[in-house]
TrEMBL record:
Source organism per UniProt: Lacticaseibacillus jixianensis
UniProt name for this protein: Oligosaccharide flippase family protein
InterPro entries: Poly_Biosynth_Transport, Polysacc_synth
Pfam families found in the cross-reference section: Polysacc_synt
Location relative to the cell: Cell membrane
Length: 470
């Protein structure tokens, strides 16, 4: 348990840092690039994200799992690493070639799309899955901290007007490439240079990674496609509203992703040792604690959405306030899916069930998002995201119904949820009558602390269960 806590502190410290960086840069960048510039960047980045997805092809998750399974033997570790890395190189080169052709076919914002190709090149050199698999999160945290800090300083130095959008895109893409390159000296010391790597085994690795790629591609269909469709069916400004709200919420949610990054190799290791009872205890208590935490997050976002938007993004983005209020509710099913999929289904190699859940969610999203975006623009995209996340989480609960007693799991959370709902009602009434946004924020934080006080004993039980299971 001490190692899990230590690793989570490393990853969560980095995730907190990645939250702080945008909080610092977003107010500046949003005021410099304006909603249209933010929207254009979001639209181009959304297209680029699909090709990054094909370049990675599920190897990040698959690689982390394979490294965790083979980390006790240096010979097997080295062999698995180079098979996966050469597979990644092959898929990245292929993706880059198709991306270049697509850029000229689309024939919109060509210069920005070409600059973004650096992000695909960065996929050649991404070996973060190696260090995640051996549970060495310290090196990842230190590397990312230094690179992110450097990119922050470059943004402030060189992005000063709306016309500097290409410079901003270059800094973001190049920082990813530099970040990945810095890991290679440590990786070579760990696994050595390749000896004999079979071409057939490389393609076997690609075939296996496709199983992990399909759910990620399906998720991307309803996370990224919304932005692309907004750019075509609505305006680049509406795309900027939706993308900004989505970024703010996913920055917060990254703290929960940090837990998945830490838990996945540990659950994989427990599964290899056939300690299924410990796995159940881990998952149930992490799920309950995650739901407890997300209640606070949603409460604070809903109660202070106006202040958050005006303070972080500026008055030009005031029209996105209802968008972020709508989108915030997707965090609840996202928490459930994060635990069941990333911390249970993936480590136990139940990829087919995971894949089915997100494919159904993606198809559902495509069906509902076209009319919603057409009639309600960014609000429609936010509503489609919430509904799709609910569908995905619901299907995953169905697939895991024999592994966990979800009735008992959610009944235990119901009590703290009622407390959170009462406090949310109080804050809503107060915020409706208090003109001073900062005073309203102070009151909502005080109510959140009351929530923590009332539910502390319950939370302590969850933590004690995790300690005993370890």
């Amino acid at each position: 348990m001490k190692k899990i806590i230590k690793n989570y502190l490393y990853t969560s410290a980095y995730q907190i840092f990645t939250i702080i960086i945008p909080i610092i840069t977003l107010p500046y960048v949003s005021r410099v690039l304006l909603p249209k510039g933010i929207g254009i960047n979001s639209w181009v980045n959304a297209i680029n994200a699909y090709f990054i997805l094909f370049a990675v092809l599920g190897i990040t998750t698959y690689g982390q799992r394979e490294i965790a399974l083979n980390r006790d033997s240096h010979e097997r570790l080295s062999k698995v690493f180079w098979e996966l890395e050469l597979a990644s190189f092959f898929t990245s080169v292929l993706s880059l070639m198709v991306y270049i052709v697509t850029t000229f076919v689309i024939s919109q914002h060509i210069s920005l799309m070409l600059i973004y190709s650096i992000s695909i090149v960065a996929c050649f050199f991404d070996v973060s899955w190696l260090f995640s698999g051996i549970e060495n999160f310290r090196i990842l945290m230190v590397r990312n901290f230094l690179v992110k800090l450097g990119s922050l300083l470059l943004v402030f130095a060189f992005v000063n007007r709306p016309s500097d959008l290409p410079v901003y895109v270059f800094i973001q893409s190049a920082s990813t490439l530099v970040s990945n390159l810095t890991l290679w000296p440590a990786a070579i010391r760990l696994v050595g240079w390749p000896q004999h790597v079979s071409l057939n085994l490389i393609f076997v690795r690609i075939r296996h990674s496709v199983h992990y790629f399909i759910p990620q591609a399906s998720i991307s269909a309803y996370v990224t496609l919304n932005k692309i469709l907004l750019g075509f069916l609505s305006t680049k400004t509406a795309t900027g509203y939706f993308d900004s709200s989505d970024k703010l919420l996913r920055m917060i949610f990254s703290l929960f992703i940090a837990m998945s990054t830490v838990i996945l190799p540990r659950i994989t290791n427990l599964y290899a040792k056939k300690l299924r009872n410990k796995i159940r205890i881990f998952i149930v208590n992490i799920l309950q604690a995650s739901l407890w935490a997300i209640i606070i997050v949603i409460f604070l976002v809903e109660a202070n959405s106006r202040l958050i938007v005006l303070l972080v993004l500026g008055s030009k983005f005031k029209d996105m306030i209802p968008v972020i209020q709508m989108a915030a509710f997707m965090l609840i099913p996202m928490v459930v899916s994060n635990v069941l999929a990333n911390q249970f289904m993936v480590p136990l190699n139940r990829i087919s069930e995971y894949t089915k859940s997100v494919i159904i969610g993606a198809c559902f999203n495509i069906i509902i998002e076209l009319p919603l975006i057409f009639y309600y623009s960014a609000m429609g995209a936010a509503a489609a995201s919430v509904c799709s996340e609910v569908v995905v989480a619901g299907i995953q609960i169905y697939y895991c119904r024999e592994d966990f007693e979800f009735t008992r799991v959610f009944e235990s959370v119901l009590g703290v949820s009622i407390i959170g709902l009462v406090l949310f009602g109080i804050a809503t009434v107060m915020n409706g009558t208090i003109a001073n946004l900062f005073l309203a924020a102070i009151i909502s934080v005080a109510l959140a602390l009351l929530y923590l006080l009332f539910t502390f004993k319950w939370l302590k039980e969850r933590i004690n269960n995790l300690i005993q299971a370890s």
